[in-house]
Design goal:
Layout: H1 6-10, E1 14-17, H2 28-39, E2 53-56, E3 76-77, E4 83-84, E5 86-91, H3 93-108, E6 119-122, H4 126-134, H5 137-140, H6 144-162, H7 167-170
Parallel strand pairs: 1-5, 1-6
Antiparallel strand pairs: 2-5, 3-4
Helix pairs in contact: 2-6, 3-6
């Protein structure tokens, strides 16, 4: 098994969550276990995050899903307008989304060196990408996907607020 640095795996990529994946649904117990796992790891050691299994798209995803990036010109641009590739997520969607929410929270809360260095696109839920940018409370009650994303974001906010006095977090 090959091990990779998380930032190398994620940097600049666009991950497509395919239609066969369930919606984001981690609840408090999964989020708490993930948080405890992350917070118990010393920053000076390697840490296994679990699997992330993806496959690179070689052709354009279904054309009826117009919200997905188009591969026809074989040039896809991710964050900061850098060339990238599309990757279909086979396994690891819940972890990948949770990490995105953590990076998003940290960046918005004054941790300038932290932000999601990758994009998430949802094959059958085109509004979810846009919703991740706002995490609007009023919209959360209109869609079960948004509800779970907002609940996870709220749990992440609580973690950081409870740990705000810990000087290790602000590094």
């Amino acid at each position: 098994m090959d091990l990779f640095n998380l930032s190398e795996v994620l940097l600049g990529r666009v991950f497509i969550i395919p239609d066969y994946q369930r919606e984001y649904s981690w609840g408090e117990s999964q989020l708490e276990a993930f948080y405890k796992d992350l917070s118990s790891c010393p920053s000076t050691t390697e840490h296994l995050m679990g699997s992330l299994l993806t496959v690179e798209y070689k052709e354009t995803p279904d054309t009826h899903k117009s919200h997905l990036p188009n591969l026809e010109n074989k040039q896809i641009f991710g964050l900061d307008n850098t060339p990238t590739t599309l990757h279909e997520v086979i396994d690891g969607q819940q972890r990948l989304t949770t990490l995105w929410l953590i990076f998003n929270y940290m960046h918005r809360s004054g941790y300038p060196d932290f932000r999601a260095s990758y994009q998430l696109e949802y094959e059958t839920r085109p509004g979810s990408h846009a919703y991740l940018q706002t995490l609007n409370e009023q919209e959360a009650v209109t869609n079960i996907d948004y509800f779970h994303l907002k609940a996870a974001h709220d749990a992440i906010t609580e973690w950081f607020e409870a740990s705000a006095s810990n000087s290790q977090i602000r590094g």
